[in-house]
Fold these 2 entries.
Entry 1:
Amino acid sequence: MEAGYNDGIVAPSSEKGAMVSYKLTRSSRKTLAIYVRDGYVDVRAPLRMPKADIDRFVLSKEKWISEKLAKSTEQLARRESFALSYGDSVIYRGKEYPITQRQGDLVGFDDASFYIPPGLSCEEIKYACIQIYKLLAKRDLTTKTYELSKRMSVAPYNVRINSAKSRWGSCSTKKSLNYSWRLIMADDEVIDYVVAHELAHITEPNHSPRFWALVEAVFPDYNERKAKLVELQTRLGAEDWE
Protein backbone atom coordinates (compact mmCIF):
# COMPACT_ATOMS: atom_id res chain seq x y z
CA MET A 1 0.00 0.00 0.00
CA GLU A 2 1.38 3.39 -1.03
CA ALA A 3 0.75 5.73 1.88
CA GLY A 4 3.52 8.26 1.54
CA TYR A 5 3.53 11.72 0.01
CA ASN A 6 3.75 13.05 -3.52
CA ASP A 7 5.89 15.71 -5.14
CA GLY A 8 6.52 16.62 -8.76
CA ILE A 9 10.05 16.08 -10.04
CA VAL A 10 11.88 17.06 -13.18
CA ALA A 11 15.17 15.23 -13.56
CA PRO A 12 17.66 16.53 -16.15
CA SER A 13 19.81 14.13 -18.14
CA SER A 14 23.40 15.35 -17.97
CA GLU A 15 24.35 13.35 -21.05
CA LYS A 16 21.60 14.35 -23.46
CA GLY A 17 20.14 17.45 -21.88
CA ALA A 18 16.76 15.72 -21.93
CA MET A 19 14.15 16.06 -19.20
CA VAL A 20 12.16 13.25 -17.64
CA SER A 21 9.14 14.59 -15.80
CA TYR A 22 7.54 12.31 -13.27
CA LYS A 23 5.42 12.21 -10.14
CA LEU A 24 7.16 10.77 -7.09
CA THR A 25 5.36 8.84 -4.37
CA ARG A 26 7.34 7.89 -1.29
CA SER A 27 6.17 5.16 1.08
CA SER A 28 7.41 2.35 3.31
CA ARG A 29 8.21 0.17 0.28
CA LYS A 30 11.77 -1.18 -0.06
CA THR A 31 12.35 -0.89 -3.81
CA LEU A 32 12.05 1.61 -6.65
CA ALA A 33 9.44 1.15 -9.36
CA ILE A 34 8.35 3.08 -12.45
CA TYR A 35 4.84 3.02 -13.87
CA VAL A 36 3.76 4.68 -17.13
CA ARG A 37 0.02 5.24 -17.37
CA ASP A 38 -2.21 7.57 -19.36
CA GLY A 39 0.72 9.61 -20.63
CA TYR A 40 2.27 10.13 -17.19
CA VAL A 41 5.24 8.68 -15.33
CA ASP A 42 4.82 7.61 -11.71
CA VAL A 43 7.82 6.67 -9.62
CA ARG A 44 7.37 4.81 -6.32
CA ALA A 45 10.29 5.03 -3.89
CA PRO A 46 11.23 4.23 -0.26
CA LEU A 47 10.74 7.05 2.23
CA ARG A 48 14.41 7.72 2.94
CA MET A 49 15.96 7.06 -0.45
CA PRO A 50 18.08 10.08 -1.54
CA LYS A 51 16.54 12.12 -4.32
CA ALA A 52 19.75 11.92 -6.34
CA ASP A 53 19.55 8.12 -6.35
CA ILE A 54 15.97 8.26 -7.56
CA ASP A 55 16.88 10.71 -10.35
CA ARG A 56 19.75 8.51 -11.49
CA PHE A 57 17.48 5.49 -11.58
CA VAL A 58 14.85 7.32 -13.63
CA LEU A 59 17.42 8.62 -16.09
CA SER A 60 18.91 5.16 -16.50
CA LYS A 61 15.48 4.07 -17.76
CA GLU A 62 15.05 7.07 -20.05
CA LYS A 63 14.81 5.09 -23.30
CA TRP A 64 12.34 2.60 -21.83
CA ILE A 65 10.24 5.45 -20.39
CA SER A 66 10.18 7.28 -23.74
CA GLU A 67 8.97 4.16 -25.55
CA LYS A 68 6.30 3.47 -22.94
CA LEU A 69 5.18 7.10 -22.96
CA ALA A 70 4.76 7.07 -26.73
CA LYS A 71 2.59 3.96 -26.58
CA SER A 72 0.67 5.26 -23.57
CA THR A 73 -0.02 8.62 -25.22
CA GLU A 74 -1.22 6.94 -28.41
CA GLN A 75 -3.44 4.60 -26.42
CA LEU A 76 -4.86 7.52 -24.44
CA ALA A 77 -5.72 9.39 -27.64
CA ARG A 78 -7.50 6.34 -29.03
CA ARG A 79 -9.40 5.87 -25.79
CA GLU A 80 -10.49 9.51 -25.71
CA SER A 81 -11.84 9.23 -29.26
CA PHE A 82 -13.64 5.94 -28.54
CA ALA A 83 -17.36 6.12 -29.32
CA LEU A 84 -20.10 3.66 -30.24
CA SER A 85 -22.85 4.18 -32.80
CA TYR A 86 -25.60 2.10 -34.32
CA GLY A 87 -24.08 -0.39 -36.75
CA ASP A 88 -20.76 -0.60 -34.89
CA SER A 89 -19.60 -3.97 -33.62
CA VAL A 90 -18.85 -5.02 -30.05
CA ILE A 91 -17.13 -8.19 -28.89
CA TYR A 92 -18.87 -10.89 -26.87
CA ARG A 93 -17.17 -14.19 -26.00
CA GLY A 94 -14.53 -13.54 -28.64
CA LYS A 95 -16.92 -12.77 -31.51
CA GLU A 96 -18.07 -9.49 -33.02
CA TYR A 97 -21.76 -8.55 -32.97
CA PRO A 98 -23.44 -5.44 -34.40
CA ILE A 99 -25.32 -2.86 -32.37
CA THR A 100 -28.84 -2.67 -33.78
CA GLN A 101 -31.92 -0.54 -33.17
CA ARG A 102 -35.13 -2.04 -31.84
CA GLN A 103 -38.29 -0.14 -31.00
CA GLY A 104 -39.20 -0.06 -27.32
CA ASP A 105 -37.34 0.55 -24.09
CA LEU A 106 -35.56 -2.79 -23.74
CA VAL A 107 -31.91 -3.63 -24.30
CA GLY A 108 -30.57 -7.14 -24.80
CA PHE A 109 -28.77 -9.74 -26.86
CA ASP A 110 -30.61 -12.02 -29.28
CA ASP A 111 -27.71 -14.25 -30.41
CA ALA A 112 -27.24 -12.04 -33.47
CA SER A 113 -26.84 -8.49 -32.15
CA PHE A 114 -26.85 -6.15 -29.19
CA TYR A 115 -30.24 -4.48 -29.59
CA ILE A 116 -31.06 -1.13 -28.03
CA PRO A 117 -33.73 1.58 -28.47
CA PRO A 118 -33.29 4.04 -31.35
CA GLY A 119 -32.30 7.67 -30.95
CA LEU A 120 -29.62 7.23 -28.27
CA SER A 121 -26.46 9.32 -28.04
CA CYS A 122 -23.00 7.73 -28.24
CA GLU A 123 -22.68 7.78 -24.44
CA GLU A 124 -26.14 6.27 -24.03
CA ILE A 125 -25.30 3.55 -26.55
CA LYS A 126 -22.17 2.67 -24.60
CA TYR A 127 -24.10 2.62 -21.33
CA ALA A 128 -26.73 0.35 -22.87
CA CYS A 129 -24.05 -2.04 -24.13
CA ILE A 130 -22.47 -2.17 -20.68
CA GLN A 131 -25.82 -3.13 -19.16
CA ILE A 132 -26.12 -5.94 -21.71
CA TYR A 133 -22.58 -7.08 -20.95
CA LYS A 134 -23.33 -7.21 -17.23
CA LEU A 135 -26.43 -9.34 -17.80
CA LEU A 136 -24.55 -11.72 -20.09
CA ALA A 137 -21.61 -11.89 -17.67
CA LYS A 138 -23.85 -12.82 -14.74
CA ARG A 139 -25.55 -15.54 -16.74
CA ASP A 140 -22.58 -17.03 -18.57
CA LEU A 141 -19.89 -16.70 -15.90
CA THR A 142 -22.16 -18.18 -13.26
CA THR A 143 -22.91 -21.15 -15.50
CA LYS A 144 -19.24 -21.68 -16.38
CA THR A 145 -18.21 -21.40 -12.73
CA TYR A 146 -20.54 -24.10 -11.50
CA GLU A 147 -19.79 -26.38 -14.45
CA LEU A 148 -16.02 -26.13 -13.89
CA SER A 149 -16.39 -26.38 -10.11
CA LYS A 150 -17.68 -29.93 -10.55
CA ARG A 151 -14.61 -30.87 -12.61
CA MET A 152 -12.33 -29.34 -10.00
CA SER A 153 -14.24 -30.75 -7.01
CA VAL A 154 -14.70 -27.41 -5.27
CA ALA A 155 -17.81 -25.56 -4.13
CA PRO A 156 -17.91 -21.78 -4.61
CA TYR A 157 -20.25 -19.96 -2.27
CA ASN A 158 -21.39 -17.32 -4.72
CA VAL A 159 -20.65 -15.63 -8.05
CA ARG A 160 -20.70 -11.85 -8.33
CA ILE A 161 -20.09 -9.48 -11.24
CA ASN A 162 -18.28 -6.20 -10.66
CA SER A 163 -16.75 -3.37 -12.68
CA ALA A 164 -13.11 -4.01 -11.83
CA LYS A 165 -10.68 -2.65 -14.41
CA SER A 166 -7.40 -4.12 -13.20
CA ARG A 167 -8.52 -7.58 -12.10
CA TRP A 168 -10.39 -10.11 -14.23
CA GLY A 169 -11.45 -12.10 -11.22
CA SER A 170 -10.91 -12.74 -7.54
CA CYS A 171 -11.79 -15.28 -4.86
CA SER A 172 -12.67 -14.15 -1.34
CA THR A 173 -11.83 -16.01 1.86
CA LYS A 174 -15.51 -16.99 2.01
CA LYS A 175 -15.22 -18.75 -1.39
CA SER A 176 -17.18 -16.06 -3.20
CA LEU A 177 -15.95 -15.59 -6.77
CA ASN A 178 -15.96 -12.14 -8.34
CA TYR A 179 -15.53 -11.37 -12.03
CA SER A 180 -15.21 -8.15 -13.97
CA TRP A 181 -18.02 -7.87 -16.50
CA ARG A 182 -15.32 -7.10 -19.07
CA LEU A 183 -14.24 -10.75 -18.96
CA ILE A 184 -17.31 -11.67 -21.02
CA MET A 185 -15.60 -10.06 -24.03
CA ALA A 186 -12.93 -12.79 -24.02
CA ASP A 187 -13.31 -15.99 -26.00
CA ASP A 188 -14.44 -19.13 -24.21
CA GLU A 189 -10.95 -20.58 -23.82
CA VAL A 190 -9.80 -17.47 -21.99
CA ILE A 191 -12.94 -17.22 -19.87
CA ASP A 192 -12.59 -20.86 -18.83
CA TYR A 193 -8.98 -20.24 -17.81
CA VAL A 194 -9.91 -17.28 -15.60
CA VAL A 195 -12.76 -19.25 -14.02
CA ALA A 196 -10.46 -22.21 -13.33
CA HIS A 197 -7.87 -19.81 -11.93
CA GLU A 198 -10.32 -18.41 -9.40
CA LEU A 199 -11.74 -21.82 -8.53
CA ALA A 200 -8.22 -23.06 -7.83
CA HIS A 201 -7.91 -20.31 -5.24
CA ILE A 202 -10.62 -21.99 -3.18
CA THR A 203 -8.13 -24.79 -2.52
CA GLU A 204 -4.89 -22.80 -2.76
CA PRO A 205 -5.28 -19.08 -1.84
CA ASN A 206 -1.91 -18.22 -3.38
CA HIS A 207 0.11 -18.72 -6.56
CA SER A 208 2.28 -21.57 -5.33
CA PRO A 209 3.35 -24.51 -7.51
CA ARG A 210 0.42 -26.44 -6.02
CA PHE A 211 -1.96 -23.74 -7.24
CA TRP A 212 -0.63 -23.82 -10.80
CA ALA A 213 -0.75 -27.61 -10.76
CA LEU A 214 -4.49 -27.39 -10.09
CA VAL A 215 -4.97 -25.05 -13.03
CA GLU A 216 -2.77 -27.16 -15.30
CA ALA A 217 -4.71 -30.31 -14.43
CA VAL A 218 -7.79 -28.70 -15.97
CA PHE A 219 -6.13 -26.71 -18.76
CA PRO A 220 -2.60 -27.87 -19.66
CA ASP A 221 -2.40 -24.98 -22.16
CA TYR A 222 -3.17 -22.31 -19.57
CA ASN A 223 -0.11 -20.25 -20.55
CA GLU A 224 -1.46 -19.84 -24.08
CA ARG A 225 -4.80 -18.81 -22.65
CA LYS A 226 -3.10 -16.26 -20.41
CA ALA A 227 -1.38 -14.79 -23.47
CA LYS A 228 -4.76 -14.30 -25.17
CA LEU A 229 -5.98 -12.51 -22.07
CA VAL A 230 -3.13 -10.03 -22.41
CA GLU A 231 -4.19 -9.39 -26.01
CA LEU A 232 -7.70 -8.55 -24.85
CA GLN A 233 -6.29 -6.28 -22.15
CA THR A 234 -4.33 -4.40 -24.81
CA ARG A 235 -7.45 -3.93 -26.91
CA LEU A 236 -9.53 -2.71 -23.97
CA GLY A 237 -6.75 -0.32 -23.02
CA ALA A 238 -7.54 1.61 -26.19
CA GLU A 239 -11.30 1.58 -25.62
CA ASP A 240 -13.18 3.73 -23.11
CA TRP A 241 -15.63 1.49 -21.28
CA GLU A 242 -15.94 3.71 -18.21
Entry 2:
Amino acid sequence: MDSINHLIKIFSDFPGIGPRQAKRFVFYLLSRNGNYIENLASHLLELKKEIAVCEECFRFFEQGKTVRAFCDICRSPNRDNKQLMIVSRDVDLETIEKSHSFNGHYFILGGSLPVLEPKPESKIRLKELLVGVNRLAENGLKEIILGLNANAEGEYTGNFLINALAPTAQKFDLKISHLGRGLSTGTELEYSDSETIKNALENRK
Protein backbone atom coordinates (compact mmCIF):
# COMPACT_ATOMS: atom_id res chain seq x y z
CA MET A 1 0.00 0.00 0.00
CA ASP A 2 1.48 3.38 -1.01
CA SER A 3 1.64 6.42 1.30
CA ILE A 4 -1.51 8.06 -0.07
CA ASN A 5 -3.72 5.00 0.29
CA HIS A 6 -2.22 4.18 3.67
CA LEU A 7 -3.13 7.66 4.95
CA ILE A 8 -6.61 7.40 3.40
CA LYS A 9 -7.09 4.17 5.35
CA ILE A 10 -6.01 5.90 8.59
CA PHE A 11 -8.40 8.82 8.08
CA SER A 12 -11.23 6.42 7.17
CA ASP A 13 -10.95 4.92 10.64
CA PHE A 14 -11.93 8.28 12.18
CA PRO A 15 -15.55 8.42 13.52
CA GLY A 16 -17.97 9.63 10.87
CA ILE A 17 -15.33 9.79 8.12
CA GLY A 18 -15.78 7.74 4.96
CA PRO A 19 -13.24 6.93 2.21
CA ARG A 20 -14.27 9.93 0.08
CA GLN A 21 -13.77 12.43 2.90
CA ALA A 22 -10.56 10.70 3.93
CA LYS A 23 -9.20 11.10 0.39
CA ARG A 24 -10.05 14.81 0.46
CA PHE A 25 -8.10 15.18 3.70
CA VAL A 26 -5.03 13.52 2.17
CA PHE A 27 -5.03 15.65 -0.95
CA TYR A 28 -5.61 18.77 1.14
CA LEU A 29 -2.47 17.94 3.14
CA LEU A 30 -0.54 17.36 -0.08
CA SER A 31 -1.56 20.81 -1.30
CA ARG A 32 -0.08 22.49 1.79
CA ASN A 33 3.57 23.42 2.14
CA GLY A 34 6.06 21.38 4.14
CA ASN A 35 5.86 23.63 7.21
CA TYR A 36 2.12 22.99 7.55
CA ILE A 37 2.56 19.21 7.63
CA GLU A 38 5.55 19.41 9.98
CA ASN A 39 3.55 21.67 12.33
CA LEU A 40 0.61 19.25 12.26
CA ALA A 41 2.87 16.28 12.98
CA SER A 42 4.49 18.16 15.87
CA HIS A 43 1.12 18.95 17.45
CA LEU A 44 0.01 15.33 17.12
CA LEU A 45 3.15 14.16 18.90
CA GLU A 46 2.69 16.74 21.67
CA LEU A 47 -0.93 15.67 22.12
CA LYS A 48 0.05 12.36 23.71
CA LYS A 49 2.63 14.03 25.93
CA GLU A 50 0.36 16.76 27.32
CA ILE A 51 -2.98 14.96 27.58
CA ALA A 52 -3.73 12.52 30.40
CA VAL A 53 -6.72 10.36 31.33
CA CYS A 54 -8.50 11.17 34.60
CA GLU A 55 -8.34 8.24 37.01
CA GLU A 56 -11.82 9.05 38.33
CA CYS A 57 -14.03 9.78 35.31
CA PHE A 58 -11.67 8.69 32.47
CA ARG A 59 -11.94 12.05 30.75
CA PHE A 60 -9.05 13.32 28.62
CA PHE A 61 -7.59 16.50 30.15
CA GLU A 62 -4.53 18.71 29.77
CA GLN A 63 -2.07 17.59 32.37
CA GLY A 64 0.31 20.53 32.14
CA LYS A 65 3.75 20.43 33.74
CA THR A 66 2.61 18.79 36.97
CA VAL A 67 1.53 15.18 37.33
CA ARG A 68 -2.16 15.15 38.28
CA ALA A 69 -4.27 12.04 38.53
CA PHE A 70 -7.64 13.82 38.35
CA CYS A 71 -9.19 16.37 36.00
CA ASP A 72 -10.49 19.74 37.17
CA ILE A 73 -14.09 18.48 37.38
CA CYS A 74 -13.24 15.55 39.64
CA ARG A 75 -10.94 17.71 41.80
CA SER A 76 -13.46 20.51 42.25
CA PRO A 77 -14.94 20.81 45.77
CA ASN A 78 -17.96 22.58 44.26
CA ARG A 79 -19.36 19.61 42.35
CA ASP A 80 -22.43 17.78 43.69
CA ASN A 81 -21.31 14.40 45.07
CA LYS A 82 -24.90 13.14 45.07
CA GLN A 83 -25.16 12.86 41.27
CA LEU A 84 -23.17 10.87 38.70
CA MET A 85 -23.85 11.09 34.98
CA ILE A 86 -22.69 8.24 32.75
CA VAL A 87 -21.85 9.31 29.18
CA SER A 88 -20.38 7.43 26.24
CA ARG A 89 -17.62 9.79 25.13
CA ASP A 90 -15.66 12.91 26.05
CA VAL A 91 -17.57 14.99 23.52
CA ASP A 92 -20.83 14.17 25.33
CA LEU A 93 -19.37 15.40 28.62
CA GLU A 94 -18.19 18.61 26.95
CA THR A 95 -21.65 19.18 25.43
CA ILE A 96 -23.35 18.80 28.81
CA GLU A 97 -20.81 21.04 30.53
CA LYS A 98 -21.46 23.80 27.97
CA SER A 99 -25.15 23.72 28.88
CA HIS A 100 -24.32 24.70 32.52
CA SER A 101 -27.27 22.57 33.62
CA PHE A 102 -25.45 19.80 35.51
CA ASN A 103 -23.12 20.17 38.49
CA GLY A 104 -22.50 16.56 39.46
CA HIS A 105 -19.75 14.14 38.50
CA TYR A 106 -19.25 12.10 35.35
CA PHE A 107 -18.09 8.71 34.18
CA ILE A 108 -17.06 8.14 30.55
CA LEU A 109 -17.82 4.64 29.29
CA GLY A 110 -15.48 4.86 26.32
CA GLY A 111 -18.20 4.06 23.79
CA SER A 112 -21.64 2.51 23.47
CA LEU A 113 -22.78 -1.05 22.85
CA PRO A 114 -23.93 -2.23 19.43
CA VAL A 115 -27.28 -3.98 19.68
CA LEU A 116 -26.83 -7.68 20.56
CA GLU A 117 -23.10 -7.20 21.25
CA PRO A 118 -21.90 -10.67 22.39
CA LYS A 119 -19.15 -9.38 24.70
CA PRO A 120 -20.37 -6.07 26.12
CA GLU A 121 -17.88 -6.09 29.01
CA SER A 122 -15.02 -5.77 26.53
CA LYS A 123 -16.49 -2.73 24.74
CA ILE A 124 -16.99 -0.34 27.66
CA ARG A 125 -15.38 0.41 31.05
CA LEU A 126 -17.85 -1.70 33.01
CA LYS A 127 -15.43 -2.94 35.67
CA GLU A 128 -14.13 0.56 36.32
CA LEU A 129 -17.69 1.90 36.47
CA LEU A 130 -18.79 -0.61 39.10
CA VAL A 131 -15.73 0.14 41.25
CA GLY A 132 -16.28 3.88 40.89
CA VAL A 133 -20.00 3.75 41.70
CA ASN A 134 -19.34 1.72 44.84
CA ARG A 135 -16.74 4.22 45.99
CA LEU A 136 -18.96 7.21 45.26
CA ALA A 137 -21.97 5.55 46.92
CA GLU A 138 -19.99 5.23 50.13
CA ASN A 139 -19.40 8.99 49.95
CA GLY A 140 -22.93 10.24 49.41
CA LEU A 141 -23.95 9.32 45.85
CA LYS A 142 -27.76 9.23 45.49
CA GLU A 143 -28.53 9.25 41.77
CA ILE A 144 -27.00 7.81 38.59
CA ILE A 145 -28.11 9.55 35.41
CA LEU A 146 -27.74 7.66 32.12
CA GLY A 147 -26.67 10.43 29.74
CA LEU A 148 -26.69 8.29 26.60
CA ASN A 149 -27.69 8.92 23.00
CA ALA A 150 -31.39 8.66 22.19
CA ASN A 151 -30.90 5.91 19.61
CA ALA A 152 -30.89 2.11 19.48
CA GLU A 153 -27.31 1.75 20.74
CA GLY A 154 -27.92 4.23 23.55
CA GLU A 155 -31.05 2.39 24.65
CA TYR A 156 -29.31 -1.00 24.50
CA THR A 157 -26.35 0.35 26.48
CA GLY A 158 -28.69 1.88 29.05
CA ASN A 159 -30.57 -1.37 29.61
CA PHE A 160 -27.29 -3.26 29.97
CA LEU A 161 -26.02 -0.76 32.55
CA ILE A 162 -29.25 -0.87 34.56
CA ASN A 163 -28.90 -4.64 34.91
CA ALA A 164 -25.19 -4.40 35.72
CA LEU A 165 -25.73 -1.66 38.31
CA ALA A 166 -28.82 -3.24 39.90
CA PRO A 167 -27.02 -4.97 42.83
CA THR A 168 -25.11 -1.79 43.75
CA ALA A 169 -28.19 0.39 43.32
CA GLN A 170 -30.18 -1.89 45.59
CA LYS A 171 -27.41 -2.06 48.19
CA PHE A 172 -27.03 1.72 48.46
CA ASP A 173 -30.62 2.69 47.50
CA LEU A 174 -29.44 4.57 44.41
CA LYS A 175 -31.86 6.07 41.90
CA ILE A 176 -31.08 5.34 38.23
CA SER A 177 -32.65 7.81 35.79
CA HIS A 178 -32.61 8.54 32.05
CA LEU A 179 -32.46 11.86 30.25
CA GLY A 180 -35.99 13.00 29.49
CA ARG A 181 -37.98 13.98 26.43
CA GLY A 182 -35.84 17.00 25.66
CA LEU A 183 -33.92 14.65 23.39
CA SER A 184 -35.70 13.48 20.25
CA THR A 185 -35.42 9.85 19.20
CA GLY A 186 -32.26 9.26 17.21
CA THR A 187 -30.46 12.26 18.71
CA GLU A 188 -26.77 12.15 19.64
CA LEU A 189 -25.76 14.25 22.65
CA GLU A 190 -22.79 15.69 20.79
CA TYR A 191 -25.11 17.59 18.43
CA SER A 192 -27.68 18.74 21.00
CA ASP A 193 -27.88 22.40 21.96
CA SER A 194 -27.73 23.68 25.54
CA GLU A 195 -31.48 24.24 25.87
CA THR A 196 -32.21 20.70 24.71
CA ILE A 197 -29.74 19.29 27.24
CA LYS A 198 -31.25 21.43 30.00
CA ASN A 199 -34.79 20.20 29.20
CA ALA A 200 -33.60 16.59 29.03
CA LEU A 201 -32.06 16.88 32.48
CA GLU A 202 -35.08 18.61 34.01
CA ASN A 203 -37.41 15.97 32.57
CA ARG A 204 -35.31 12.91 33.39
CA LYS A 205 -37.16 9.92 34.77
